[in-house]
Amino acid sequence: MIPVISLDCPSYDEKVLKRTLEELLSALGGIENLIKPTEKVLIKPNLLRASPPEKGVTTHPLLVKALTEILKDIGAQVIIGDSPSLGPFPLVAKRTGMLEVAKSNGVEIINLDQSLTVNTPSGFSFKKIELDPRVLEVDHVINLPKLKTHSMTLLTLGVKNLFGCVPGMKKTSWHLKAGIDRKAFSALLLEIALTVKSSLTILDAVWGMEGNGPSAGNLRFIGKLIASKDPLALDRAVVEGLGLSPEDLLTLKVAQQRGILPEIKLLGDSLNLKGFKLPKGAIPLPSQFKFLRKFFIPKPKLDPQKCEGCGECAQVCPPGAIKLKDKRPIFDLEKCICCYCCQEICIRGAIKL
Ligand code: SF4
Ligand code: SF4
Question: Is the Cβ atom of 351 under 6 angstroms away from ligand 1?
Fold first, then answer.
């Protein structure tokens, strides 16, 4: 049984965050038993795009700050790193508040933009993947996802957050390799998580995002920090807290089919997340109707009233299925692989499913 600790955390007040983090770490056996002085630790927040903390698109910088201070206190060498879907990285680091955290705590912040092809440990569906080598060179990766919905994967939690270890636009080619099959993409996410082997995952669920996430959904107060040494265990606890079954999150389903889905022991405060609104396109169908899914995979549609013609959706579309005409995106639905990267990146909520 893998422990997952959920603790109430009513705000991003620095003292409250630090106290709650210390309690979480102590419930997991103490930070000094996990990380030795002088060891190198990469903190991997969710830095999807250049969005300010109050929008709830990215991991809150004060959570990263509190964790960085705890790690520095025990003598660890800390780096903050991610590879945003849409750059430039210096702007992302500044707008998300991470640059300020790095400066004030005297730690480095890096763009995970280097690429190394590595063998996956299980070699199941994807035998090789491309990762930034620095996530493999450090002694520990601490994974700091944000609790948000995601139109393709249902939710973005511990396992999904590690997709940011794939450098920059290489993510696009991996989306293409997985194609329209969500299960194949989930298998890829699982391979990445198994290769990165994060030592600890702490979910920022003080404020989450529900509905049309992961960038244009609605903010929802949850008031929790949730932690586990195993991202699969953490994801399972959240999915069950939502009143769903592990099979409803495809990364967990793939893990279950491979016999590596952990049993969990939930500790701390209650984790009842029922009523959290899921994205329409990813709502799990009852099992007797699942064979219908391929006929009902929603395609992206433009809401012209909301579109500002920035062209960011076209920049991130893996198969190049979006062209701008008179500052309006035109979708080639024959080419579309339903990855929803366009919907994910559009903070104006102009892409519907
Ligand atoms: S749909 Fe969104 S991302 Fe695409 S051009 Fe319009 S506003 Fe920009
Ligand atoms: S149009 Fe949108 S959903 Fe379709 S492939 Fe491009 S980014 Fe993915």
Answer: yes
Count of other CB atoms within 10 angstroms of residue 101: 25
Closest CA to 165 of 143, 128, 193, 132: 132
Q: How far apart are CA 261 and CA 255, in angstroms?
A: 5
Query: What are 165's two structure tokens?
Result: 């270890």
pLDDT at 130 over 90: yes
Query: How much distance in Å is there from the Cα of 210 to the middle of ligand 1?
Result: 20
Name the residue ranges covered by the structural domains of the chain: 2-282, 298-352
pLDDT at 91 over 90: yes
Q: In CATH, which superfamily holds the domain spanning 2-282?
A: LarA, N-terminal domain (3.40.50.11440)
148 touches 209 (CB < 8 A):
yes
User: 313 CB under 6 A from ligand 1?
Assistant: yes
3-class DSSP state of 209: strand
Give burial (CB, 10 Å; 0-12/13-18/19+) of 17. Answer: buried
In the predicted model, is pLDDT for residue 15 greater than 80?
yes
Q: Any idea which ligand is nearest the CA of 182?
A: 2
* The pLDDT of residue 289 is above 70: no
Ligand nearest to the CA of 178: 2
Q: Which fold has domain 298-352?
A: Alpha-Beta Plaits (3.30.70)
pLDDT band for position 87 (50/70/90)? confident
List of residues 6+ apart from 337 with CB closer than 8 A: 175, 176, 179, 180, 318, 319, 321
Residue with tokens 């660890």: 76
Mean pLDDT of the chain: 94
* CA nearest ligand 1 atom 4, residue: 313
Give the pLDDT score at 298: 85
Q: In the structure, what pLDDT confidence band is assigned to residue 295 with cuts at 50, 70 and 90? A: low
Q: Region 321-345: what's the mean pLDDT?
A: 94
